[in-house]
Design a protein that fits this description.
The protein has 320 residues and is an alpha+beta fold. It folds into four domains: 3-41; 48-152, Porin chaperone SurA, peptide-binding domain (Triger factor/SurA peptide-binding fold, Orthogonal Bundle), CATH 1.10.4030.10; 156-180 and 284-320, no CATH class; 181-280, Chitinase A, domain 3 (Roll), CATH 3.10.50. It has helices spanning 3-41, 54-68, 74-93, 100-113, 118-127, 132-152, 161-170, 198-214, 218-226, 246-254, 286-313; strands at 43-47, 50-53, 181-191, 231-233, 237-240, 264-265, 269-280, 317-319. The strands form two sheets. Strands 3, 4, 5, 6 and 7 form a five-stranded antiparallel beta sheet that branches. Strands 2-1-8 form a three-stranded antiparallel beta sheet. Helix 7 (161-170) packs across helix 11 (286-313). It is globular. The two termini are 33 Å apart.
Length: 320
Amino acid sequence: MRADTAFAAIVGRACGKAGRAIALVAAGVMMLMASADLARAQAVVIVNGEPITNSDIDQRIKLMILTSQKAPPRKDVIEELINDKIKIKEAKKYGLDPGPSDIDSNYASMASRMRLSTQQLDKTLEGHGIHPQTLKSRMKAELVWGQLVRGKFQQSLMVGEKDILSAIEAKGQQGQEANSFEYHLRQIILIVPRGSASGVIDARRREAEALRARVQSCQEAIDLFRTMRDATVREPITKTSADLPVNLRDILDKTPVGKLTAPEVTKQGIEMVALCDRKPTTADTPQKREARDKLFAQKFETQAKKFLQEIRRSALIEYR
């Protein structure tokens, strides 16, 4: 008989039903303790009392090979895992401790950006020998670390307008701001039920093209599509050139004001965008946004590296 089972039986006989319940709990605790002891025994490194095992290292290596297409040095992988545990522990001090549902939500968002379902992303990872939890653990460390650094060093991470203009001047991009616009848009959708046959989709697309040719103003588009069945007109939105990818900027710049963009098949159905207004702006341009993002990233990386070095000095790291 195993020691933990024997322990439960002895206490159960001595204490009756209540004793048996207590004994089962005690046995469970002993099993958890045994599992923790096993993990510690297999640990390559212990960080603030938490083990990093060979399995953890192998999983992270597989993940890094999948994302970077090259095998990282094992020593670098171990250091990254150490940093992740330190980041998560430090973030907890400031109340940054997302639960499983929060991480699952971020995981689902990543899958969506890859045009996958969470189940498909799971299968993709598992096909490379990677447990989905390996990616989720990495995501959690990066999520809390980003929140922590941005919150703790908010003032020092701010990027001034003068710095932005200097960066643009250094790249020789001055004078390009005139090509930046502010767009006033209305998204229009002709709804097509999911799973519809290709013939239904093609017919709906032809209908959209015919209606597009009729529209001469934004208000006309709104009035027309609001009266149609299985069609919807979204609330107005305002975007600048800096907010949009290059391909969409090009489309909107070539679309006359008051007209619709070409129909596009999406998950919702057939989508078009009514361009209600377009006017030049220098408030926020692609050049400014690019310079601002680059300067912020540089400041963030410098501050994050310095902060990590600081908290690593007070961490208890035991290499086995």
